[in-house]
Design brief:
The protein has helices at about 40-45, 90-105, 125-135, 150-165, 185-195; strands at about 10-15, 25-30, 65-70, 75, 110-115, 140-145, 170-175. By secondary structure, it is α/β, with parallel strands linked by helices.
Length: about 200
Amino acid sequence: MPINFSQARFIKGAHNLNQCPPDTGLEVAIAGRSNAGKSSALNVITGISGLARTGKQPGRTRQINYFELAERRYLVDLPGYGYAEAPLKLRQHWDRTLGAYFETRKSLVGLLVIMDIRHPLKDLDQQLISWVSDIGIPIHCLLAKSDKLKHGPASAILRRVCSRLAKTGTDIGIQLFSVADKRGLNDAREKIGQWLG
């Protein structure tokens, strides 16, 4: 079933797992450090400006936000990690909730990890990738904000990240991506379409 990204619509935000839609469809989650550009990436991928709330202040996404692309086909915007300004109780809640989400959600067929190309594979990124990979969930990394670098340096970072992730022994996709100039947009859509197809 081809995915029409422009039909995306916000369905609901879940503070707890029991508030998520029934675990019977297919969903691709989007994760990343706070302010890595997750919500902006979701807006560009769907082609709908303002679909997901964005802002310069980290930590705007405070729920598991579901966006339906087709019947029981979802993009899921997860709260950013590594945001030290969030209250401790909230961070602990999200650690527990997202842990349970990755380990128990049967509908989850793929994870997009958004990383700022200027700061890729920080400790929390590596921990998430290693953990989710061990669970057996396919991962595709978007090196976002790649328009901030010239082609040569961006390509060099891409090769370096590929080399480091190859050592994990798992098959993880990696690509350049930019919200500003839509670099890598078609590749990202194609990957999501494969997962949700």
